[in-house]
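Sequence in, structure out. Go.
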Amino acid sequence: MWRMRARLAVTFIGLTLAIAGIAKAPGDLDTLRAKAARGDVQAQVDLGNAYVNGTGVTRDLERAAKWYRKAAERGDAVAERKIALMYLWGEGTAKDQAKAARWFGKAAAQGDVHGQFDLGVIYAHGTGVGQDEARAVNWYRKAAQQGFAKAQYNLALMYENGKGVTRDETQALNWYRKAAEQGFAEAQYNLAVTYEHGTRVARDEARALDWYRKAARQGFPKAQFNLAWSYEHGKGVARNETIAVKWYRKAANQGFARAQYQLALMYVRGSGIAKDDKKALHWLFKSADEGYVPAQFILGRAYAHGAGVKRNLAQSCFWYSLARPDPKKPDKERDEACSQLDSAQQLAVFIQVAKAQSALKKLSLEGNP
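Output:
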């Protein structure tokens, strides 16, 4: 069972929106331009939206930034948030995180819920401002009290981890539940973990399973994995390996390494699916490529003994070395495979290992699920 919590929601609200009321007819745009030029704030925002989306005009982020800035300077909260995003990403204007933070602050101060959430993220990560988790909590709370699910979820995490606020698992549970009841998958998953392990609530496998199922149906891979595990092992539900395979596959198809590994094992054993060593090897490689150590170790052993693959000591040494990377710590199977290679082969393998470790580190930083 996967026990790790889902991480902080950090996605800023995007610029490309469905813009109602803007037709593609040139006459409508001419009218919009005329109103915007006369200082009509809503027209300025709508014209900025048109340039962002390419609605009736060639997409032009610099012109979009121009009109958002004009509306923002007149105090329009939506425009303040949008020009903040453009400064944050350097789209249509030079990247300037400090200016982004200032404009998010202006939108947030007017009660714009997305601006409040984004300002919370800004302070939580120190983007354009000094990192200040207490201020992050303050702005998450303001957005959460307006019913914004992402903010409710982030506020719950802050309470759970004692970041910017005194650790309070009861408050964390309260805010997780509020976000979960709005359908926010990460909150549903964390609420499930809470019920599964009895953190500040009575342990309840049935409730945990219900929340895992809700998050899994939304495509959240950790929930899909835990739901599969529950079906495979009969935790809170009748054991059903066929359903377990279904959910392992859904998570595996999203690149969730442990699900790929478990799916490989199901193919090896013929559990819930026809036994298929070729497909098992396929998923084992995928899991190993994602950095899952047990999969890497099994591949090292498979190549050492020619089990399901052609015996290849260089490949065995490679996979063993990824799984057991510290050469100062003796490892009988790795050392035996690698010692049978000559010095040139060993060097080639170690170069491959270094490249693979670098790629895996990058994958981790990019947020591998």
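Check: The CA atoms of residues 205 and 235 lie 7 Å apart. Residues 32-110 form a domain with the Serine Threonine Protein Phosphatase 5, Tetratricopeptide repeat fold (CATH 1.25.40.10).
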